[in-house]
Specification:
The protein is built from 16 helices and 17 strands. The termini are far apart. It is α/β, with parallel strands linked by helices and 455 residues long. The relative contact order is 0.09. The structure holds nicotinamide-adenine-dinucleotide. This is UDP-N-acetyl-D-mannosamine dehydrogenase. InterPro entries: 6-PGluconate_DH-like_C_sf, NAD(P)-bd_dom_sf, UDP-Glc/GDP-Man, UDP-Glc/GDP-Man_DH_C, UDP-Glc/GDP-Man_DH_C_sf, UDP-Glc/GDP-Man_DH_dimer, UDP-Glc/GDP-Man_DH_N, UDP_ManNAc/GlcNAc_DH. Its EC number is 1.1.1.336.
Length: 455
């Protein structure tokens, strides 16, 4: 029987074959993005085996439980697809790879200690998978990789491991364009899927599969390297644009400029999307992807490097603002009781990777402040890792504080009755968070001193 790779058919007919359940799929890596992807695949093709090296993850999925929290709709989808027999899980890479025709890799791709892209996890997985693939199988890479990685590293590795030649099996880069906290929505159609094949037949299979999965459709780009560049460019665009406004934020002390007004007025022209200045850039993607270019491709990338440096300096800038505002009311960082409000890198998401709260807390502790931290979406253990005394958000109102630094614009913080505190200094690190009162001395990054307060 023909495989999807060999099949001489229209995209629509290929999609039908994929949806028939005849094509076994393995999804390698059942993490924050891999499990939602595996569950959505299972919903569409009813024939998925999820593979992870972590037995706890595999046991949970096998029991129909969801080891990932904070992803709306995921628990129900895992429970349903496992119950229906569409999704199962294993730690046995070899067995899953032997049985499957489509292989989807979504394991971590990291930076090493020198900030060079580290593809060792992905490559070691693909060596094992490659050793089991048959002619006609197709490998989809969803993990973010540097531009050129599929052509220059992954294809040769798969050829060697499989002892098959290019053209006998397929390879396509199909980047995960999702954000934590909205994985299912993004995967199933918040915006189109981008796919790029190492050859025409690979791209055709990727298009057919993702047209089933993603209601917003598929953008099939020229080749795998173009698709890699699309994913990286999305991250670079964000990093550079955030750096631009972070740089402009430093003039807020000298000019009567409120960045909220600047953003909303300037962004009324269709090709302008002014970003928000803030305390820093966190998460799994934006702070890392510039290195997938700077430390991978030949050439000099001074703009990317400067943007990264600018964004990395924002926690320090935040502490400088706090120091200045405390000094103006005769206080200093040393001995001040400072609450860091929000530790997660993003509102509503229980994740702390590269959060600017880390360096902010560190610098406060070093300066001799008494530091408290509070975050309604994180458990105490995760918050405690960063130092400072952990407080439930419901308890902060009883605290006697000298200052608050708002790091994350969690929705819960909009409920805070700021007038219940004695006058203090507030450094508002997020333009999207409004702290509207004149009791406190309020400095918003990008808008400068918004209230002198009654201190
Ligand atoms: N998290 C995000 O918001 C996001 C968004 C877009 C793209 N991505 C990309 O997706 C990829 C995966 O990210 P994630 O956030 O899901 O990672 P994660 O750390 O949440 O999960 C990775 C999973 O892979 C498993 N794993 C590790 N080695 C394995 C192996 N050899 N075989 C099978 N499983 C293995 C781990 O046990 C873990 O369960 C990365 O390349 C990342 O850059 C992530």
């Amino acid at each position: 029987m023909s495989t999807l790779y060999d099949l001489d058919a229209t995209t629509k007919d290929r999609t039908k074959v994929f949806e028939s359940g005849e094509i076994p799929v393995a999804v390698y890596g059942l993490g924050k993005m891999g499990l939602p992807l595996a569950a959505v695949y299972a919903e569409n093709c009813s024939n998925v085996i999820g593979v992870d090296i972590d037995p706890e993850v595999v046991n949970a999925v096998e029991a129909g439980d969801c080891p990932i929290s904070g992803e709306p709709g995921l628990s129900a989808l895992v429970e349903e697809t496992v119950r229906e027999g569409s999704l199962s899980a294993t730690t046995n890479i070899k067995a899953a790879a032997t049985e499957s025709e489509i292989h989807v890799a979504i394991v971590p791709t990291l930076l090493d200690d020198d900030q060079n892209p580290d593809l060792s996890i992905l490559k070691s997985l693909l060596k094992k998978v490659g050793a089991q693939i048959d002619a006609g199988d197709v490998v989809f890479i969803e993990s973010t990789v540097p531009p050129g990685a599929c052509r220059d590293e992954i294809l040769p590795l798969l050829e060697e491991a499989s002892r098959l030649n290019r053209g006998e099996f397929g390879l396509a880069f199909c980047p995960e364009r999702t954000s934590s906290g909205r994985a299912i929505k993004d995967i199933t159609g918040a915006y189109p899927k981008v796919v790029g094949g190492i050859d025409e037949a690979s791209a055709r299979v990727a298009q057919a599969v993702y047209e089933s999965i993603n209601d917003a459709g598929v953008i099939r780009v020229e080749n795998a390297t173009t698709a890699e560049m699309v994913k990286i460019t999305e991250g670079l665009y964000r990093d550079v644009n955030i750096a631009l406004v972070n740089e402009l934020a430093s003039v807020a002390d000298d000019l009567p400029v409120n960045f909220r007004e600047v953003t909303s007025a300037a962004s009324t022209i269709p090709f302008i999307n002014v970003h928000e200045p803030g305390v820093g850039v966190g998460g799994h993607c934006i702070p890392y992807y510039p290195y997938f270019v700077m430390n991978w491709l030949e050439g000099d990338f001074p703009l990317l490097r400067l943007a990264r440096e600018r964004n990395d300096r924002m926690p320090e800038f935040t502490i400088d603002c706090l120091q200045d505002q405390l000094a103006s009311v005769g206080e200093s960082l040393e001995g001040s009781r400072v609450l860091v409000l929000g530790v997660a890198y993003k509102p509503g998401v229980a994740e702390t990777r590269a959060t600017p709260a880390g360096p902010i807390i560190n610098q406060l502790v070093k300066a001799g402040s008494e530091v408290f931290v509070s975050d309604p979406v994180l458990d105490d253990e995760k918050m405690g890792d960063f130092g400072g005394e952990v407080l439930p958000t419901s308890d902060i109102l009883r605290m006697d504080l000298d200052a608050v630094v708002i790091v994350t614009a969690h929705e819960e913080f909009t409920e805070i009755d700021w007038t219940a505190f004695d006058p203090m200094v507030i450094i508002n690190g997020r333009q999207s968070m409004s702290v509207d009162n004149d009791k406190h001395r309020i400095y918003t990054i990008g808008s400068g001193l918004e209230s002198e307060g009654n201190l």
